[in-house]
Amino acid sequence: PMYFLLSQLAAVDIAYACNTVPQMLVNLLRPAQPISFAGCMMQTFLFLTFAHTECLLLVVMSYDRYVAICLPLRYSTIMSWSICITLAVTSWTLGILLALVHVVLLLPLPFCGPQKVNHFFCEILAVLKLACADT
C-alpha cells in the first residue's frame, strides 16, 4: 500500500507541475500574453484540485504509516488493498469536489477594471483581486 500511495502522490505532483509550468514558460518567452477567463478558471480549478488532492493523500499516507508503526500485527487487515484504493479514490474525489466548490463560488463574482493577473498563473487570490464585489 505504501508504494501505491507514493505513486498516487507522484502522479499528483507531476500533474501539479504540468498545470503551472506551461503558462509560466509562455509568460517568460512572450511577456504580456493575457490568459482567457475560461482558461484562467480551468487553471484555477486544476491547481486547486491537485493541491487539495495532495493534502488529502498526505493525510492517507500518514494514517498508513501510523497503522504500520503502532499496529503492526493488524496492518494487513486494516490497510487492505480495497481500503487503500478506496482511500486514494476518496482523496481524488474530495479534491475535485473541494476545488469545484471554490470555482463555483468564484464564477458569479463581477469582474471589472484591468483584466490582467499579475502572476504567472491564475491562482485564486490573484483572481479575487480582480473582483468588484465585496469578498
From TrEMBL:
One of its GO terms (cellular component) is plasma membrane. The chain crosses the membrane at residues 41-60, 81-107. It is a multi-pass membrane protein. GO terms for molecular function: G protein-coupled receptor activity; olfactory receptor activity. Residues 1-17 form the signal peptide. Residues 1-135 form the G-protein coupled receptors family 1 profile domain. Its main location: membrane. Pfam families: 7tm_4 (PF13853). The keyword Methyltransferase does not apply. It is found in: Cell membrane. Keywords: Cell membrane, G-protein coupled receptor, Membrane, Olfaction, Receptor, Sensory transduction, Signal, Transducer, Transmembrane, Transmembrane helix. InterPro entries: GPCR_Rhodpsn, GPCR_Rhodpsn_7TM, Olfact_rcpt. The keyword Isomerase does not apply. PANTHER family: OLFACTORY RECEPTOR. Putative odorant or sperm cell receptor. This is Olfactory receptor family 2. It comes from Macrotus californicus.
